[in-house]
Structure formats: C-alpha cells, structure tokens
C-alpha cells in the first residue's frame, strides 16, 4: 500500500476539546461513574449517562486520540489498522493446535454492520433468563444507535435494503457501500438469481433473518468512517461539562475493596500515565468496557477470578469467580480466490501509484470514489443442515434462521490471509472470505504474572472442535459451487488455489494452515442467569457477587452472534446504560 500524507486530512476532524492527554488537566479524580475503555461500548455508555446533567463521568482510555488519524477516517484505509500499529494492543494468540501451531493476531477493527439473527438474541434471553435480551426487546436499541445515511455516491438504493428495519434518528452512521465495482457487483447479484435455492437474494440481512445473499451495510457516513469516537463523542457531546475523557491512561486494577451487604465493592480504579500511578474514585459505579481481552485481565489482576490460579500468581482472591477469562470465542476465517479477466479491480489501484494518488485526490475533494468504501461489497449467509445431520453433528447455531457460514465478497482484489497464496503477481483477481459463524471451540484469556502491565495470554481455541473444521470444509465446497454459477463463466479465469479435487483430509489441512481470526473475540466475561453457578455477570451486567461494578462490552456475550460484533456491541451498550435506571 502506498503511503498517505497525513497533513492533507488534518482539517477533516473537528477538535475534541474535552479530551485530555494529561491527568493534571482534569478538574479532579472523583466522578459518579468511571468507565474503563473508550471503545465501541464505553463511549456509548459515557454519552448516555451524561445526558443526565447530574451525573459526572470519566472515561479512561489507554490509547491515543483519533483526531487526524487518516487510517481511521478513510474507509478504504481500515486494513492498515489490522496490522501492527500504534492504535492497537498488537496482541497475538499463543500457538493454536487447531491451526497447526500457528499464532494469529488479535486486531479488533472493522466497519461491517450486521446484527446477526433474531435467534441469536433469543438464545441470549433464554440463557440469561432475561427477556430483555431477546431480539424483539433489543431491536429498539439497534434503532437508538443507528443513523441510516444515504451512500456517498447517491446511487439508487431501491432493492438494496429495507427501510423498515432501519432508523434515521440514531447517532452512529450506517450506510450501503458506494457502488464502485459495478461489474463485480452485477455478477454477485446475478449468481443469486441463477442459484435461488442455494443462495436466495435477501433484501436486508439486518431484519433478524439474514439467510441469503445481499448488499453490505457499513458504519460509514458521508464517505468517512463512523465510529463511537466520532459519533457518541462527537463535538455536540464531548463539550458536556459532566463528561471527561482522559487518553494515555492505562488502568491496572480496581482498588479500595470492601464489602457491603455481603457483596464486594471497589472505591475506584488505579491507572498509569507517564510512569506514575493515579487513582480515580467512582462514587456510584465502575463500568468495565475494556473488551474481551482487557476486561478479564483487569478482573484477574484485581483479585476476581479462579482462586487457585490467582493464588499461584501471588494475587489475593477477593472474589472466587472461575468463569473469568473462560468461554473465549472467535470466528475462524479463510479465503478463496480466482483470477479474472477484468481490470475493474482494487489491485489496479493499490498496485499503481498514479491511480492510487488519483483515487486519494478524489476522496480528498469529495469523499467519493474507491476510498469511500470498506473492504467488502456483499455478504451471503447459509445453513448446512443436511451436511451436519448426515454426519451426526448437533446443530451449533442458535436456531433455524441463523446461518452456519458467512461469505464476504471482498472488493475485487487478491485478498491474502495467513497461509494463502494471495494471487498471481500482476493478475487481477477476486476473493471471498469464508467464516465459521457458530464455533463450538472455546479458548481463554488468562494472565501469567501479577504485573498488570504484562501482556495477557490469549488462546482463541481455534478449530479444536471437529464440527468447526467440518463446517469450514463444507463451506468451501458450497462456495466453490456458488462461483460455478453461469454468470461467472466469462469473468473468472481460474482458481488461485485448486481445492476442488482435494480429499476431505486435504481440505481440513488447508483450513488449519490458512484460517485466521475474524477480529471478533467475545465471551470472556459472559452473562448468565442470576442463579447460574457459571458466568461472570448477571443479566443486568453487574459482576456476580459484587456491587457497583458492571461490565458493558463484547466480553459479556454468552455466544458469538451469527454476524459481525460491532452492531451487537452497540445494542448491548445502549441497553446496558438503560439498566442503570
């Protein structure tokens, strides 16, 4: 990828006047609510709590400002955030036996907006015993989050989405991807017409019934990426007098423990900045929104977790909660690719300095063109009922409207994931990412030191279950048939890797050698019913056995949703804030 000039975009991002980078700038260190983590969920909670002028809120964020970060502004550049950079923790997993001993990264970034299936949330409600987590009860919170925005190219969107399932009154922009690849898009949609039984067209995959093939929706507005930082902490909100955000503040543990009414409570949190330690006091509640890695790590270093493991590390156990850090779940992904006889591909831009500069100049002028879209154009979702049943596997999905696999039709280019060849040099190609949506395999996030600034141990548990490998194998067969539809005949030249004649054992080995993370680790502080003897939080997201300590982020998911995690995290955060009332 060619280097971008940061200076040309500095004017695009408004000044975040109430975001501080030095603890000495804060008016004090005592607040009603202290939120640990200024990510997708934490910023939602901060925004909603400070709608009440009587609440004071401090957000402690370990990272740096998003202001002027071109890779976070231009949708096309999101892929630069998926490689090691200063905006990520740059964690990697331990060697994964299911991936033939490979380590994989743990980035958490993306713009795809998919809610999953209604079945997913109905399963949340069943497991927690709280009907408030059901699809029907959560849908208003999806709407509360979403601000539907016309695509920046203003193309005719009739027949590409269903307005009935969207809201224009929310905060975070959601839009259809700009139509920059008409030839490829035409073939994708035509394939659904030619194979209607296997891949029916789905007008809107965010209706709660995602099965089928349809147009992608992303968190983009006006040709720019829409994040919780630019939306929920936008200029009209960040100026609130009762909202303070401190950057470069890495929280190490909860402090000031005591007991009240038989429950553990903490007075505040300890955080580091500039080599010194500080304590922020929370008068009402501490909210952990540090994500599926950060949140369990904070709990463990604060003495909340498996007593035996904590004792071995010399950490005093304040609350024996063995489920902390367990149930880690992530979607394995791998790709297929084909060379094509069309020059209307992303490679013609990314591998050509002149065309790259022209596309970037267009985006600078009008926020249109190839750089106004993310990495995918369409998505398809399918079930494997007959395949699973014939091999005596129990259905791992949440219900009959939930897909087993996702197919991501990436912008036409040579997608390269771990272990794949990534295409032939100089030859245009197209790619499809294949995702195992309901992994049975489970991993963990643990610690091996009492030093809270040491890196955690991340074990995603990829492909440890036979059904996950089987699902991946059958997905390959199904997608190969999809790309044999008549519409592709004069477009596709040849597969980049010939998998069609491989045995099942060879396909399994291919999957283990090429699968990677889909960036959606969840479940490490999962919610469960109030009387359950497992889990980390109750249905109100309060930590079991504790008071005034709540977790609101993707770590509370008891199961992965059959889609991308962003939209679900927004909805859970919107409802999570409601639980304070």
From TrEMBL:
This is Aryl-alcohol oxidase. Belongs to the GMC oxidoreductase family. Residues 291-305 form the Glucose-methanol-choline oxidoreductase N-terminal domain. It comes from Mycena albidolilacea. The lineage of its organism: Eukaryota, Fungi, Dikarya, Basidiomycota, Agaricomycotina. Residues 1-17 form the signal peptide. Gene3D superfamilies: FAD/NAD(P)-binding domain (3.50.50.60), Glucose Oxidase, domain 3 (3.30.560.10). FAD binds at residue 251. One of its GO terms (molecular function) is oxidoreductase activity, acting on CH-OH group of donors.
């Amino acid at each position: 990828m060619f280097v971008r000039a940061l200076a040309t975009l500095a004017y695009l991002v408004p000044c975040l006047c109430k975001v501080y980078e030095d603890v000495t700038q804060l008016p004090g260190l005592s607040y009603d609510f202290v939120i640990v983590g200024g990510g997708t969920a934490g910023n939602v909670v901060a925004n909603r709590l400070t709608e009440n002028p009587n609440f004071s809120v401090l957000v402690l964020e370990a990272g740096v400002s998003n202001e002027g970060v071109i890779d976070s502004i231009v949708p096309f550049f999101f892929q630069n955030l998926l490689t090691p950079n200063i905006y990520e923790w740059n964690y990697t997993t331990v060697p994964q036996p299911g991936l033939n001993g490979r380590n994989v990264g743990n980035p958490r970034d993306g713009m795809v907006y998919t809610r999953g299936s209604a079945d997913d949330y109905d399963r949340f409600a069943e497991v927690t015993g709280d009907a408030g987590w059901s699809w029907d009860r959560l849908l208003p919170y999806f709407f509360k989050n979403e601000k539907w925005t016309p695509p920046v190219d203003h193309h005719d969107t009739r027949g590409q989405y269903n307005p009935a399932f969207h809201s224009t009154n929310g905060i975070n922009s959601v839009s259809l991807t700009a139509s920059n690849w008409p030839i490829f898009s035409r073939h994708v949609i035509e394939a659904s017409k030619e194979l209607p039984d296997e891949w029916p067209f789905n007008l809107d995959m965010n209706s709660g019934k995602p099965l089928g093939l349809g147009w992608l929706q992303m968190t983009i507005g006006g040709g720019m990426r829409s994040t919780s930082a630019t939306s929920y902490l936008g200029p009209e909100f960040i100026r609130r007098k009762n909202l303070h955000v401190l950057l470069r503040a890495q929280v190490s543990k909860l402090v000031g423990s005591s007991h009240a009414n038989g429950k553990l409570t903490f007075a505040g949190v300890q955080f580091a900045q500039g080599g010194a330690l500080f304590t922020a006091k929370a008068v009402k509640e501490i909210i952990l929104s540090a994500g599926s890695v950060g949140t369990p790590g904070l709990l463990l270093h604060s003495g909340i977790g498996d007593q035996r493991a904590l004792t071995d590390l010399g950490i005093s156990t304040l609350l024996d909660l063995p489920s902390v850090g367990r149930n880690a779940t992530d979607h394995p992904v791998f790709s297929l690719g084909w060379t094509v006889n069309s020059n209307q591909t992303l490679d013609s831009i990314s591998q050509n300095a002149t065309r790259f500069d022209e596309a970037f100049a267009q985006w600078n002028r009008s926020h249109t063109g190839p750089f106004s879209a993310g990495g995918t154009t369409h998505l398809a979702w399918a079930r494997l009922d007959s395949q699973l049943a014939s091999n005596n596997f129990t259905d791992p999905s949440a219900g009959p409207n939930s897909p087993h696999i996702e197919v991501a039709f990436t912008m036409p280019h040579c997608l390269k994931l771990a272990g794949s060849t990534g295409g032939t040099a100089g030859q245009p190609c197209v790619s499809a990412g294949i995702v195992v949506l309901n992994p049975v395999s489970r991993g963990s996030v643990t610690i091996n030191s009492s030093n809270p600034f040491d890196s955690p141990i991340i074990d995603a548990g990829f492909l440890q279950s036979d059904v996950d490998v089987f699902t991946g194998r059958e997905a390959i067969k199904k997608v190969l048939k999809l790309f044999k539809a008549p519409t592709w005949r004069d477009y596709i030249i040849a597969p980049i890797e010939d998998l069609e004649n491989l045995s099942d054992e060879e396909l399994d080995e291919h999957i283990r050698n090429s699968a990677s993370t889909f960036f959606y680790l969840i479940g490490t502080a999962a919610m469960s019913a109030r009387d359950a003897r497992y889990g980390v939080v109750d249905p109100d997201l309060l930590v079991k056995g504790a008071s005034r300590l709540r977790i609101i982020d993707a770590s509370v998911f008891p199961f992965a949703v059959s889609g991308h995690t962003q939209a679900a995290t927004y909805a859970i955060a919107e409802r999570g804030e409601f639980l304070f009332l």
